[in-house]
């Protein structure tokens, strides 16, 4: 019978390996766009920062937070986004491959689904992809250091890209000349080039570009009008206020203590 045939074949399931994430750890999934250097060129991204692309990344990350379970914070910059699951999550029995693939596919399909909302007339020329990885962090300090590391990366890259493209777009240098000019320079040198040659104070550049995007859940009071039936069969509009969780975006420093003190519910103890 087919039932017997099925049991005959079923042993192959035992070839699946256990990828349960260690208990008590924060589960972080980081996605990164595949070959986005080329993707950015082919889709005419503004240099150094295309706000349509950043908006689409953030929209896609919101979809991941809303559709999947147990995400407490997400942080994104450039073509990457990190998603942090609460340490007590038991979603899919903590199987790493389930977390990674659900995040990557929900994000990728959202990126395509919402493309037009952000890029309008610019057509999507081919299906983009994102790689994913899972990393476990056992302490709040480790998790905060992870997020600090990504934000520091955002800062370093954005400072470099800002000077590089200013030298090219306003200084008339070729990309090769700009690269040569910046070889071996420190952050202070880059700030100085921007300030003395182009009258740009890097600290006044947009927070979105300098700090990236942190997404967290926030309670919001929502007032809706409900039609209520009165006992005497009459209908009446009544204002009902309830508190709902909504994803909120922040473009601020997450390295120091202030952000975490202002949002003490994000991290569990
Ligand atoms: P890999 O597949 O190894 O990740 P990659 O080409 O995606 O290769 P990354 O190091 O991930 O390399 O860099 C992403 C690149 O995508 C940036 O260097 C930049 O050129 C481009 N990019 C991503 N987001 C934006 C944006 N919002 N505005 C402009 N350019 C962007
Ligand atoms: P999970 O998220 O756990 O995978 P699921 O609802 O996707 O839940 P599956 O066991 O994967 O459960 O089953 C997929 C279901 O999708 C099928 O049971 C069927 O109802 C539906 N389905 C998938 N493909 C088709 C198809 N080509 N035609 C009709 N129904 C389909
Ligand atoms: Mg990569
Ligand atoms: Mg990439
Ligand atoms: Mg990247
Ligand atoms: Mg299914």
From TrEMBL:
Residues 9-138 form the tRNAHis guanylyltransferase catalytic domain. Gene3D superfamilies: 3.30.70.3000. Belongs to the tRNA(His) guanylyltransferase family. The keyword Magnesium applies. The keyword Nucleotidyltransferase applies. It catalyses: a 5'-end ribonucleotide-tRNA(His) + GTP + ATP + H2O = a 5'-end phospho-guanosine-ribonucleotide-tRNA(His) + AMP + 2 diphosphate + H(+). GO terms for molecular function: GTP binding; magnesium ion binding; tRNA guanylyltransferase activity. Adds a GMP to the 5'-end of tRNA(His) after transcription and RNase P cleavage. This step is essential for proper recognition of the tRNA and for the fidelity of protein synthesis. Also functions as a guanyl-nucleotide exchange factor/GEF for the MFN1 and MFN2 mitofusins thereby regulating mitochondrial fusion. By regulating both mitochondrial dynamics and bioenergetic function, it contributes to cell survival following oxidative stress. GO terms for biological process: tRNA modification. Keywords: GTP-binding, Magnesium, Metal-binding, Nucleotide-binding, Nucleotidyltransferase, Transferase, tRNA processing. GTP binds at residues 32-37, 78-79. Mg(2+) 1 binds at residues 32-33, 79. Residues 141-256 form the Thg1 C-terminal domain. InterPro entries: Thg1_C_dom (IPR025845), tRNAHis_GuaTrfase_cat (IPR024956), tRNAHis_GuaTrfase_Thg1 (IPR007537), tRNAHis_GuaTrfase_Thg1_sf (IPR038469). This is tRNA(His) guanylyltransferase. Its EC number is 2.7.7.79. It comes from Sphaeramia orbicularis (orbiculate cardinalfish).
